[in-house]
Amino acid sequence: MKNIILIAPPAAGKGTQSEILVQKYGYTHISMGDLLREVISSGSTLGKELKNIIDSGALVNDDLTIELIYNKLKTLEGKPFIVDGFPRTMYQALEFEKVLTKLNITEYVAVLLDLSKEEAVKRIDGRLICKCGKSYNIYQDNLKPKVDGICDKCGAKLEKRDDDNVEAFKKRYEIFQTNIEPIKEHYQKLQKLEIIDVNRSISEIAEDIEKVIK
Ligand code: C5P
Ligand code: MG
Q: What total number of domains does the chain contain?
């Protein structure tokens, strides 16, 4: 199984697809958004700064994300991984190449989940999350909680992410649109790019991803 770099606009299903791959193939899932939210949970000064940035929909400092990814990848010792939500800028993409070279990682595929803006807006509107990490969507089959507002896995009350609002979404989507073209070209040149249409069911998307990671 190849390592996976999962690139997508907000709410395209990076987390959902990663969870399937973790269950089925034993990948380690590294979500940059989750790593940053962990720093926020620690309550440190840096965490407070990050919360303001993330809640506004902006991107945090590139070098911080690169440091986080490097520290995480180096603990894996060759085990297959999915990196989700990174790189989000061209600078991150170029620095990431250096990190991969340094860690001797050559086998990977960059999977771009392609989603229309209209569908992304809808998914953001319907997304609910649990503190345990599980994510739901009240508008998507197979992603609805069994009991309204309650986590299937741990029974806790579901919440909206602070940055899942119209204002922050606009910014997140705009930033994605601005940055994606050079990143796409970068992985195309390296012959590592696979584009997958995600305006479809979860299982259809999962099947397509499976084809490109083998
Ligand atoms: O991927 P996810 O939507 O969970 O990311 C949440 C937020 O984390 C982004 O909107 C952004 O504020 C921040 N982030 C970042 N740089 C990354 C990944 C995430 O600034 N490479
Ligand atoms: Mg995510």
A: 1
Which ligand 1 atom is at minimum distance from the Cα of 88?
21
Q: Is residue 43 helix, strand or coil?
A: coil
Q: Which residues surround ligand 2, an ion (CB under 5 A)?
A: 14-15, 31, 33
State whether the beta carbon of 163 lies less than 6 angstroms from ligand 1.
Answer: yes
Residue 206 has pLDDT above 90, yes or no: yes
> Does ligand 1 lie within 6 Å of residue 18's CB atom?
no
Long-range contacts of 146-154 (CB under 8 A, 24+ apart): 154/130
Q: Is the pLDDT of residue 128 over 90?
A: yes
Q: Is the pLDDT confidence value at 78 over 90?
A: no
Could you report the per-residue pLDDT of 47-57, keeping only the tens digit for each? 999 999 999 99
Q: Is-contact 45 115, C-beta < 8 A?
A: no
Ligand 1 atom having least distance to the Cα of 87: 21
Please state whether the predicted TM-score (pTM) of the whole model is above 0.85. Answer: yes
- Residue 145 in domain: no
Structural domain that includes position 17: 3-115+176-213
In a domain, 43, yes or no: yes
